[in-house]
Amino acid sequence: MNQFWQGARTYFKTASFRKVSKRIGYFFAGLVVLIFISSAVVALYFNTNKAEIVTQINAKINENITGTIHIGAIKYKFLKGFPNMTLALSQVELKDSLWVFHKRTLLKAQQIEIRIDLWDLLSNEININKIEIQQATLHLFKGRNGIVNTHIFKAKPKGKKSKSATTSAFDEIIMDQVHFISENQLGNKLFDFDILALRSKIAFSDGNWHTNLYLKTVAKSMAFNTKRGSFIKNSLVEGVLTVVYSNSKNQISIATTNFGIGPEFFDIKAHFSLDANKSPFDMAIKTSILWREASALLSANISAKINQFDLKNPINVSCSIIGDMNAKGDPEIIVKTNIRDNELKIPDGIITDCTFDATFTNQYKKGAGCNDVNSTITLTDFSGKYKTIPFKIPIGIISNFEKTTAAGSFKSDFNVSRLNEIVTKDFIHFSDGQAKVNLEFKFDILDLKIQQPLFTGNVDVKNATVNYGPRNLTFVKTDIELDFTEEALLIKKINFKDRKNKVFMEGKIDNFLTLYYENPEKMNVNWDIYAPFLDIKQFVGIITNSGQKASKKKNTKDDFSSELYAVIDKCQVVLNLKADQMVYSKLEATNAKATILLVNNQLIVKNGWVQSSGGTISFDGKLVPKDDLFFLQSNTKINRVDIARFLTSLNNFGIQSFQPKNIKGFLSASTSVQGTLLSGGQLKTNSLAGSAKFKIDQGALIDFEPITAIGKYAFPFRDVNNIVFRNLSGNFDINGALVGVKDLKVSSNVLNLDVNGVYSFGRGTNLALTTPLRNPKKDELITDKVERAEKRNKGIVLHLLAVDEEGKIKIRWDKNHE
């Protein structure tokens, strides 16, 4: 190799090489001089024959158009395009013959350069084989009345073929800074592009042609329907397009790969027909793209809806667009995608491990038009996890984008504890148990909110443990069977236990889902509840316990705890209660039944009935929250209960002056009282107010202090410690610690006693006592009631006062008796 280069250097120094290189230099110098001379000759020819050339150009143009063309000036471009002639046409305007009606100029350019074949020009024929348009506006127009500005080219006579059908066609087109507008008012279409650069060399063959076209443009509008908005608005579009024209099909075909639209790249195939009356087209687009990037390329009516959603990872998408450039309305759009192991963001949260196939079409029913009403999204084999809850939607269809509806099937099987990811711990906490969901659904969607939902199917929960935080209530071994029908939610079975109670529930909620989402305050929950054992104090404590509200620290869209709590708080609940055994503190009852209404956070009891203390008690009432306390209103009828047992079970109503052991008999009474309950169900001391009427049969007063205190002095020889009475009845007005006593009559074997006045559970007792001194022991032998009443107050009658002195009852003479 070194020997070769050494020989070459020796040759370059020889006279022979210098002679050859000099000849080569003369050749290229002569060639350059020849080009300059030839170009100068062409320039001289143009200037000499300018008028004739311009006439030929005008004739060539006018030969093919019916409108008017204005050219400001024509200049020769020295050397450019040699050996052909390049002419620069400045201030060019091209108008069709109907311009006066539509006012749209077809072409307005600062400069157009055309390349003319010099040999044809010398033969007095103009053939333009290259055109370069700079700083121009090209505006295609079709009005609502069908008028167009493109009927500028003359139709060729039938059967006539140009001699230069091929040679006179442009074989190279260049555009720089060209504003292209295609305005179709009849079809509501607008295509508006700022073409920064376009380069195309065209090859012709038997009436067909093809080219690799480089395009760089900004899409200001690509609206297939101007009412819906533009696709790829304000996006930079750049790439190389393979364009083929078929003369037999009168069709242009376009194909490209890695074609840039905005920041993304697409593979595109398209066909455009050039028929005069119809202009059908079709486009097939494929790409891998992020959801939000894809949304940014769509029209506003579509992107506004799908921007409520997002997918974390890129998705593979294929799209086909089929339509007619001359037809009104949208083209048919079909979009398909396959999502695998992605993360889907929805308005209510995030779905992880998301996998599904989806198809969008705006012509679901063929022949019904391409529009929002006929648009659908079909989801198949959808699976994912909401929080940690897995679910499947074998098929789901979202239809009608004007009045959107969704329908499909929903399935899930999961451990109940996973619900803790959805609701806050302070509200409801789950542990243990398994849930199975199998539902068919259909609902309307308005502003991405569910309206008029319809679910059919069932939900089963087995062996769950549930803690309801606001009432600090825990249910263990809870079974739930829910059956959703078209008319109602049927709660076939809910079984649960807490610390003391075991409850079996069945229920029904008419129009459940619609009311849940739209009017929870109108929801009526009807429960049939059976309990072998029920602690009423605990139950009332649940209602009255202020507890903890659902956590409000975090108010995120994917946490529906507050929404669920609001529904529970607003709905109306009707409980039809039956219990074999029931207790309230020490009060025991059997065969209990009642209808309980929970309305507007109030507890209303109707038709309550129990067996207790050897008799029966019927009642109704109301419990209303007031700040941290609860207002109680109750009407009660008591029929022949054992008074001692009854008073003992109710802690003697807080009375300290006597104990239940001081009284015997069977109590019948009717009361209408109101009072205040503390949180937890305890009666607030001295809060009762109302009235009571009572009667005691087969009664006895044993060591009853108010009587024994009188008997010591007034009846020392009578057994006042054991008074058996034929009748004990009276009326009371209750006002806190004070009881107004009206017409209390005691008719016994020891004494008769009439009592009126005020008795106090605390301080303030002031009772007027009317006591005949006669011994009534033999009055029971008098069968005539009138005669017995006449003898009641015969003889000496004592009028006494029982008054409170420093917490003790003192007896005084009643000087002011009636």
In short:
The chain has about 800 residues and is an alpha+beta fold. It contains 13 helices and 39 strands.
Write up this protein.
The structure is a single chain. The chain is of the alpha+beta class and 818 residues long. Among the domains are: 26-150 and 169-187, no CATH class; 650-817, no CATH class. The chain is built from 13 helices and 39 strands. The protein has a 39-stranded mixed beta sheet that branches. The radius of gyration is 51 Å and the shape is rod-shaped. The N and C termini lie far apart (153 Å). The model is unreliable at 31-35, 160-168 and 546-558 (pLDDT under 50).
Identify low-pLDDT runs: 31-35, 160-168, 546-558
Helix content: 10-25%
How many β-strand stretches? 39
Tally of DSSP helical segments: 13
Kindly report how far apart the N and C termini lie: 153 Å
Mean pLDDT: 79
Alpha-beta classification: alpha+beta
Q: Give the overall shape, derived from the CA principal axes.
A: rod-shaped
Question: Roughly what fraction of the amino acids lie in strands?
Answer: over 45%
Calculate Rg over CA atoms.
51 Å
Report on the biggest sheet.
39 strands, mixed
How is this fold's topology laid out?
Blueprint: H1 2-12, H2 15-48, H3 50-64, E1 68-76, E2 85-95, H4 99-102, E3 107-116, H5 118-122, E4 128-142, E5 172-184, E6 189-205, E7 208-225, E8 229-231, E9 235-246, E10 251-261, E11 264-273, E12 280-289, H6 291-296, H7 300-306, E13 310-311, E14 315-324, E15 332-346, E16 349-361, E17 376-386, E18 389-399, E19 404-415, E20 428-431, E21 434-446, E22 449-468, E23 473-484, E24 488-497, E25 502-510, H8 512-517, E26 524-535, H9 536-544, H10 561-570, E27 572-584, E28 587-599, E29 602-612, E30 615-626, E31 629-642, H11 643-649, E32 663-677, E33 689-702, H12 705-714, E34 722-735, E35 738-748, E36 752-760, E37 766-772, H13 785-792, E38 797-805, E39 808-813
